[in-house]
Specification:
single chain, 3 domains, five-stranded mixed beta sheet, Neuraminidase, alpha+beta, five-stranded antiparallel beta sheet
């Protein structure tokens, strides 16, 4: 009889124990993560134990824990700076917030496994997992924001840069919201910082995990940016689902949409962590009597969606002009200005040098003195004239032959210069002189046949 009663008592108490394990209470600082490999949740809040929740079993299980920390690292520091990531079946890594040190959970023991150090280079970066490896993108460190993309190598236990096969990539930023798909990583917004100035990024990028190429998709909906800003940033959180005040947001990044649900119930929500199928959600809520303690419960996603959703576009394609970087615009501006100044210089040079171009050599009476005009007509009529035939124009009683010769030469030289100025020709080619074919001592002056005399007299 006693044995029968004990069995009955056990049967009656079993459902009560099962029900008691449907929720657990932890602090706001508790670290939590979902493992697609185990289809379970892990929660760490205390140095003596941790919790797991397997979706198939539907109950919380408490595990004893041993942590082998470095002497200078307390458990509170570990819980505040290390984020859990599931990388394989029954395997979790705890990754340092600024990149560097890595701990692993194995056989209920957390032990350091890396060959790195506290790099302090990627605070507030996006921490995600792909094919059993941990990755970090962006973040803040060494007094600047980064677009550094690193991965933890499971063999060498060190961090390496991720090689990208595209010239374009997101600008440096921290507090990077991300959504991880099986073959792609989406980066949504973030914060750019230069000294004490901050700028909220409004772009969305896609990183193809197979081809390792970045692609700019567009500009995020301003309403979506406001929601993420209100929600705040969690370093290892996938933002496919999140809440902000009284709104719950579901993101369908592949179809460029997000859906909004509204309920006052959402004010009490603190953390939402979905499974990989978006069917169940680990919900952390504040009870009304406490704001520093969370009640954790796994629920169907459908039970959290209140009312009819509003549908919004997630992003709009960015214009081609906004895709051009500031540096490119700067170089284009410099080249355009150089081209403009070159054209201006060339145009002015053409204007200035146009005076020197030969023009129609039509000689007018008004441009010459009486003697010059007569001499020109004489040379034109004769076509070839002995230079001594001009002596009559300069001869005077008692004038020596040398003086007469100089006057004649000066006159012809001045006449050539005037013709060069009027016709824009080389002075050496006008009224050319040559030796007489019969008497080499005599010179002949010739008429340029391309010159014309307008009018007689």
């Amino acid at each position: 009889m006693t044995t029968t009663l004990r069995c009955l008592l056990l049967l009656l108490l079993a459902p009560l124990g099962y029900h008691a394990q449907q929720t657990i209470k932890v602090s706001n600082e508790a670290q939590m993560v979902y493992s697609k490999y185990d289809e379970s949740y892990l929660v760490l809040d205390d140095s003596t134990h941790y919790y797991t929740y397997a979706l198939r079993q539907g109950v919380w299980k408490k595990h004893n824990l041993h942590i082998a920390l470095d002497p200078e690292l307390t458990f509170e520091q570990f819980r505040g700076r290390f984020y859990p990531i599931a990388v394989a079946k029954n395997r979790y890594l705890f990754v340092m917030d600024g990149c560097g040190m890595v701990f692993a959970l194995k056989n209920d023991t957390i032990r350091r496994i890396d060959n790195s150090y506290d790099q302090k280079n990627q605070f507030n970066s996006a921490v995600y997992e792909h094919d059993g490896q941990v990755f970090m993108f962006g973040g803040y460190g060494l007094f600047e924001v980064k677009n550094t993309h690193t991965s933890f190598d499971n063999v060498s236990k060190e961090w390496f840069q991720v090689v990208r096969n595209s010239k374009e990539c997101p600008s440096g930023r921290s507090s990077v919201y991300f959504i991880k798909e099986p073959t792609a990583l989406y980066i949504l917004g973030g914060v750019e910082q230069r000294f004490s100035k901050y700028k909220i990024c409004n772009d969305i990028w896609r990183f193809d995990l197979r081809q390792q190429k970045w692609k700019l998709l567009g500009e995020l909906n301003a309403n979506f940016l406001k929601r993420t800003e209100i929600r705040g940033f969690v370093q290892n959180k996938d933002y496919r689902i999140f809440h902000s005040n009284n709104k719950l947001t579901l993101v369908d990044v592949a179809n460029n949409k997000y859906y909004s649900y509204t309920s006052n119930r959402y004010f009490t929500y603190f953390r939402m962590l979905p499974d990989h199928r978006m069917q169940r959600v680990l919900l952390g809520a504040h009870p009304s009597v406490s704001t520093d303690q969370l009640t954790l419960k796994v629920q169907d996603l459908s039970s959290l969606l209140q009312g009819r959703p509003q549908e919004y576009y997630l992003y709009k394609p960015i214009s081609i002009f906004k895709q051009v970087s500031f540096d490119t615009y700067l170089w284009i501006s410099i080249l355009l200005n150089l081209g403009f100044f070159f054209l201006l210089f060339y145009a002015r040079r053409i204007t200035k040098t146009s005076w020197y171009r030969p023009k129609n050599a039509i000689l007018k009476r008004s441009d010459f003195s009486e003697m010059e005009w007569v001499v020109l007509q004489l040379i034109k009529d004769k076509e070839e004239l002995e230079l001594s035939a001009l002596n009559d124009f300069f001869d005077e009683p008692g004038l020596s032959h040398e003086t007469l010769k100089k006057r004649r030469e000066s006159f012809v030289k001045a006449l050539r210069i005037k013709l060069a100025l009027l016709t824009r020709r080389d002075v050496e080619t006008l009224l050319p002189e040559s030796k007489h074919p019969l008497d080499k001592r005599m010179k002949i002056i010739s008429w340029n046949k391309d010159m014309e005399i307008k009018g007689k007299g």
